[in-house]
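# nightly structure sweep
# worker-07 picked up a monomer target from the shared queue
# config: single-sequence mode, recycle default, output format = structure tokens
# input follows
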Amino acid sequence: MNGKVLGSIAAVVVVAAAAAGYFFFGAEKKVMLGDIELYVFVQSTTTPELAVIDVAHEELVTRVRLAAVPDVMVVAKEPKRVIYANRATNSVHIYDIATQADDAVITLPFSPDNMVMSPDSFMIAATDTETGQFGAIDIEATLTAAREMGAGTSVFTPSDLVEKKLGFVLEQTFYKPSKVVFSDDSVFVFIADSLTGILSTIDTASGAVLDPIQLSLHVGVVDDPDGDELSALTRTPDGLYGLVTQNTDGFVSIVNMRSWAENLVLRVGRGASRAYGTADGIYMMVGNDLDKTMTVLKTDPWEVAATLPAVAGVTSISTGFFEKLAYVVSNPENRVAVINLETLTNDAYIDLPGGPGVGIADADGKKLYVPLHDSNSLAVIDIYNMRVHKIIPNVTEAPWGVAMASTNNYCH
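# output follows
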């Protein structure tokens, strides 16, 4: 059998497999990547790989293999690195898209199921919801230590965090610390505690736990065994205020970050999820899952501007088109509600061909990228025209999160 016949058979097999819905997420040919701001990164929840999407051409560039499944993922703009955590190996990885390899792997004494990045993108905070442990990693210090160790991936142990001054792990534990956020200047970390209704405050330079901020919203362990009743703190863009929502009864606590105290409490809707904000700071928005509504809060003065029909099961709220439109993504409903922030009306619903994960808007507020978890694809939504512009198929297995170096999203 000659080469031409073999090639024809192979082509038929590939075409037939694609037609039948079978895709191969195997090893990719290495593709040289450019600046990190040119891409959208899509996280697989089942496979140790990362899908890389070209923003300009709206197409899959490659899938890069990782050392472990990226259970949590963020993108650091300044160090130009993708940072991901893996719960099974208790590890945080600092990944360089230029070399397509880990610069450093930090092993923690706990399983990091939650990870957030500081606004200046130089520090990572990680927590273990089950054990209540908290740790912080200085990205730049870790990269410097890795360079000093030479070529290849540098591996750091929990003791290296202190000895090499790469970060710290607190001895104090917290009640189900999944609600974590940095201050706007990256100096402090706040952890919302549903059991006591306090915001624990951690100094990121020293690791000291400072005086907490007491909220009037808390329920106790009997009514909130999973620690989900209070949301994470969401800062206003100017950093002057922080918002914490109470889920069941639908209240939002507004904290003055200068006076370190709760200013007032407003009623939103039942099943209130965390607050999101417009980039210009005029509005804050809360999705109310049980009521299938979205409450728009005006920030000057603080008041409820409107509560509008929306969706349940909110995974994210993103804004765009000069902050005039808000996109409320629902996983159980497989659709997106479009809220007009000028007229304070629900302008549209956009149906999606799959269950959406967490969406993210580009820096210009023109496109919204939404991974479709059960169809292995990525939806690209035209924000201005309120429609699905493109579905990029066969992106990665079971995608949930997406990340970009520059985004219009403002949720913390």
